[in-house]
Amino acid sequence: MTEATPSDDHIVACVKEMESLGLDDYGFNLTRTHYQDEALWQAFRKDFDDALERGADNAPKDCADAMKKLGPKVITRILDDVDFDQQRPEGVSAAFQLFCLDSDDEDDNEDEDEADADEPWSHDMGPGIIRSICLMADEASMHSFETTPYVIAVDALLHTGADLGYPGYFKVAIDSLMPTFYAAIGHFDLLQVAAAVDGDGIWRRMKQLQN
Questions:
Q1: In angstroms, rounded to a whole number, what is the distance separating the alpha carbons of residues 140 and 148?
Q2: Which of 3, 35, 181, 189 is deepest in the core (most CB within 10 A)?
Q3: DSSP strands (E only) in 12-108
Q4: The Cα angle at residue 168 between residues 166 and 170, in degrees rounded to 5
Q5: Which H or E run contains 13?
Q6: Would you kindly state where each structural domain of the chain is located, as residue ranges?
Q7: Residue 102 confidence (pLDDT)
Q8: What is the spatial distance between Cα 193 and Cα 191, in angstroms, rounded to a whole number?
Q9: Which residues of the chain are under the pLDDT cut of 70?
Q10: Strand locations in the chain, DSSP E?
Q11: Are strands 133-137 and 26-32 parallel, antiparallel or unpaired?
Q12: Cβ(6)–Cβ(208) under 8 Å?
């Protein structure tokens, strides 16, 4: 089988739906797991934002205008907590899943607002934030701007030990996160998305196979 040029239809449909829904935020949660080099982390943060913006600027032409309007609503919610130093994907998955469950329980509890201010993740996570995966930035990710900038996508169910059909985590090019990866997560099964990594182990877009 050979690879054909993949269709952008699901990306265009996703971006137009995002515009139509009019939610406050769209994006991902990201966990920092390397704390031995603060300068490296700060450089990564800047380069990450630049790469994310580049990806949005390169949205398919049929949704480019809509994506530009959505720009201010695209966010990355970062968990920056030294307790996660050297954490493995399984640990990131477990913490993220517990956080999502707590968030669901506390959505309507206004008394939690003051306490939430001290939490590493805010519980104010709207429906436009992806919950099926969490992004992870380890030391290698932070150095990846020397080659191909990437972060690690971690399945929220990885910690359960369930057979996911794939390792439960994979690399994603940062400039593919929005809207390409965001749209893929919403349109395809995670197993299909994970199977679309390139030969260097980094996901850039979905693949379409033909005989």
A1: 11
A2: 181
A3: 26-32, 74-79
A4: 95
A5: helix 9-21
A6: 2-210
A7: 57
A8: 5
A9: 1-6, 100-124, 208-211
A10: 2-4, 26-32, 74-79, 133-137, 150-155, 169-173, 202-203, 208-210
A11: parallel
A12: yes
